[in-house]
Amino acid sequence: MYISCPECDTKFVVTYEQIGKHGRKVKCSKCFNIWHQTSDHYTKIEPVAPAPTAVTPLGNGVNLPALLPIKIPVYLYILPVFFLMLISLMFVVIFPEKFNIDSLAETSGLTIEDVSIKHLKEIDKITVSYKVLNSSKDHMKMPLIRIRLCDNNGRILKSYVDERDVKLAPQQMISIRTEFAPPPAKTHSVDIMLGGRMDFWLH
Asked: pTM for the whole thing?
């Protein structure tokens, strides 16, 4: 039902139950006029039936919104490859003999002795001399020998790997000399290590 303010004629929608059979006082929210509203003076709101709606079928050539494919983050492609490489590396480290890779265990009976480093500044050459001793009771194949030249901060300036097809008898010692000419300008120290390529990669 509708009621109207007698002062400003503003209309309000109320229910019959709000006004009651005997009426009640009402205050206009626009002009703040107060009056007694009875249930005899109102306009009844007739329910309006909704208009029927028809569904129009889509004709030929009508464009519909396309569903975009879900974009998969790039890292979801990279992670499986990374984990596969990590697992493969673990197998190589744990079982190097299965992959025909020399391990550090084969050098357990070999030691480097009598290391001598000479820097001939007049001809700009560094000579690294050392001996490899087989202190075990078995014949040992000569492993790879890596020599690294480093600066005073331990940064690697040059790396060289010496490979020799030699077997050392028990208690046999072999002398080796390696020359660097010209050496890196900031060479401060020399590092020598016995092992395989995997050992060098890990250390």
From this structure: 0.50
